[in-house]
Amino acid sequence: MSSGTGILAQKPSQPDETSASKAFTQLPPDIAKAVAAFKSKGHKWTPDYKPGSEDEKIRAVFAAYATNDEPDNRDESQDPWKFEVVNGLFRQSHDEHSKLSPEETLETGFGLLDETPDRWNKFKASVEKLQREAPENVKYKVMFCGRHGQGWHNFGASKYDPVSWELDLTKRNGDGEIVWGPDAELTPLGEKQALTVQEGWKRNLALGAPMPEVWFCSPLTRTAETMRLSFGDILEGKTPIFVEAFREIFVLTIVGIPQFQSYLQERYPTYEFEPGFAEEDPWWKPDERELETNRRERLRNAMFKLFDENDQTLVLHHRPYSLETGEMIPVIVKATKQN
To answer: Among 9, 40, 147, 254, which residue has the least CB neighbours within 10 Å?
Structure first.
């Protein structure tokens, strides 16, 4: 994330960094050519999964990957909060630093630029200074943002070409060999990734890293299990909170479970639910993919609520965005109250 970029009102990614572009290069040449031709005509791209003409199929495939290219031209001046990323403490906030691997992130104090033995105490002093000197309308929060470990849906997506996956297999719960729906479990690799994160947390806590004060979790089995494995006994006495809006983009394989809240409560009895959490999933639809602009809007509103209702400095939650499976990055967020 670059300087001055709002954490939720994101600028469009560069073409070579988007999942849309990566997937586009994986399409068969004839499909890729047809997609390019269809896009050049200026058609409106929508997640239309109806069977029919080749144009309908192409549009569906392309829309499934291209939504991250949508620009966000909304007027942020009317928002209750303005979000900015604070630079100067973590490598991940600086464009000039190459992307760290998940292992390197855990080995380098989650990416701290300061590599001295006293780095975590100096980090906490820096954050305390920001808070102490902040104007009345400004808050700072340290957010450790993690993506779930590899799920069986991730494995399934890598097993098939994107056309077959997006147009057919995402509507199923599995292929006879593996099961990825309706709420994908972690693969053995995903469990290993989460346990590696736990090792990193325990190592850094022993060196003085701050203990998160609030624990937010996306309401999916793979995210709840990732949190459980990522922290182990660190979670003893802590209460993770399921937050509906912190889910990834809604697609066919994400969730379609009756009695959604009861299902999660039975599996994770020590987790709580945010007020108003629905028993039946209110957002998932069996034949529709959420648009990127809609995802940004619900996450933006969740962040507004978080800053309105929480005075803690250190916040942790799972939000699957621009991270490899099992990866975690810290972000220091400056929020300025505008309205």
So the answer is: 40
User: Is the torsion defined by CA of 298, 301, 307, 308 positive or negative?
Assistant: negative
Report which DSSP code applies to 171.
G
| Euclidean distance between CA atoms 260 and 183, whole angstroms | 10
SS3 19: helix
From 29, 20, 16, select the one nearest 61 (Cα to Cα). Answer: 20
Q: Are 210 and 120 in contact (CB under 8 A)?
A: yes
Q: In the chain, what is the greatest distance between 2 CA atoms, to the nearest angstrom?
A: 63
DSSP string, 24-55: HHHS-HHHHHHHHHHHHTTPPP-------SHH
| Residue 56, C-beta contacts closer than 8 angstroms, at least 6 positions apart | 48, 50
* Confidence tier at 20 by pLDDT (50, 70, 90): very low
Cα–Cα distance between 48 and 46 in angstroms, integer? 6
Q: Which residues contact 179 (CB under 8 A, 6 or more apart)?
A: 152, 173, 185
Q: Which DSSP category does 170 fall into?
A: G
Encode pLDDT of 65-123 as tens digits. 544 445 566 778 888 998 888 888 888 777 666 677 777 777 788 889 998 999 999 99
Give tens-digit pLDDT for 181-226. 888 899 999 999 999 999 999 999 999 999 999 999 998 899 999 9
Q: How many CB atoms lie within 10 A of CB 74?
A: 13
Q: Which two tokens stand for residue 281?
A: 């999933």
Per-residue pLDDT of 283-335, as tens digits, reads 776 666 676 677 778 888 888 988 888 766 655 433 333 567 777 888 899 99
SS3 sequence, 227-275?
HHHHHHHHHCCCCCEECHHHCCCCCCCCCCCCCHHHHHHHHCCCCEECC
pTM (2 d.p.): 0.77
Surface-to-core class of residue 209, CB atoms within 10 Å of its CB (0-12 exposed, 13-18 middle, 19+ buried): buried
Question: Which residues touch 117 (CB under 8 Å, ≥6 apart)?
Answer: 207
User: What domains can be seen in the chain, in order of their start residue?
Assistant: 74-337 (3.40.50)
